[in-house]
Amino acid sequence: MASDDVPDLYPSEPRPVRLMNTIWADKAGTHDALATVGQLDRWVRQCGIPATGPLGEDDLLRARELRDALRRLAATAVNDERPAAVDAGQAVEHALATLNGFTSQSTPELRWDGERGFHRDWRFGVDGFGRELAALALEAGELLSEGPEVRLGACYGPGCVLYFYRSHPRRGWCSAGCGNRARVARHYRRHANG
Questions:
Q1: Cα–Cα distances in Å, from 48 out to 41, 72, 180?
Q2: Cβ–Cβ under 8 Å, residues 131 and 57
Q3: Residues pairing with 25 in the sheet
Q4: More confident residue, 128 or 177
Q5: In this structure, which topology does domain 15-192 adopt according to CATH?
Q6: What's the pTM?
Q7: How far apart are CA 159 and CA 181, in angstroms?
Q8: Could you tell me which residues are beta bridge partners of residue 107?
Q9: What is the mean pLDDT of the chain?
Q10: What average pLDDT score do residues 31-43 get?
């Protein structure tokens, strides 16, 4: 993979899950798809996030900070204890403070327009990419506050470290491939011990 390539893992997932899944794994190990500003730029374009100007190192650090906090909170919500999936050193309280720091840059606002009537929108106290991260944090807050144990899942496919949005209550893996690997591993364990 070229230095600024970013795997576009499951583009139908909500943006907060897509951000969490910039930590991914394959047979070679666990990877960080937000290691460079170029990778961040590529990920932003993949997610359809509006261009707000050139991205820099500070943008990369903030995106990684939000990503790591979301992974910690998702792990807590779904009781995920996979060591490769989550930085065990980050306390839940710190992750919450990080997420709330991003969301505090927005204020709910009631608006009116002729087509939609009254509707809630957000006024942001930051511009540029910071505004996009604040909006993403708001989306994550919605995802985490509405029954996260039902809406979020941790993929327990062999070696996987991804999270996913449960489009079906019985969905247990991020992909059919991980589900197949998990079934094969379970079959092998049963027959190896039998």
A1: 11, 25, 31
A2: no
A3: 30
A4: 128
A5: Jann2411-like fold (1.10.3300)
A6: 0.85
A7: 10
A8: 123
A9: 85
A10: 93
Locus of tokens 């606002």 = 109
Q: How many CB atoms lie within 10 A of CB 90?
A: 16
For residue 155, give the amino acid letter: C
Q: 37-46 vs 57-77: helix axis angle to the nearest 10?
A: 60
Residue entry with tokens 């197949």: 180
61: enclosing H helix or E strand: helix 57-77
pLDDT, average across residues 95-112: 93
Q: Could you give the 3-state DSSP secondary structure of residue 129? A: helix
Distance between CA atoms of residues 155 and 194, nearest Å: 27
**In this structure, are residues 163 and 17 in contact, taking their beta carbons and an 8 Å threshold?**
yes
The letter for the amino acid at 116 is R
pLDDT at 132: 95
| Contact between 134 and 126 (Cβ < 8 Å) | yes
Q: Which residues contact 165 (CB under 8 A, 6 or more apart)?
A: 13, 14, 17, 143, 151, 152, 153
194, two tokens: 């039998």
Tokens read off for 65: 């900070």
How far is the C-alpha of 72 from the C-alpha of 186, rounded, in Å? 27
The Cα 161–Cα 187 span in angstroms is: 21
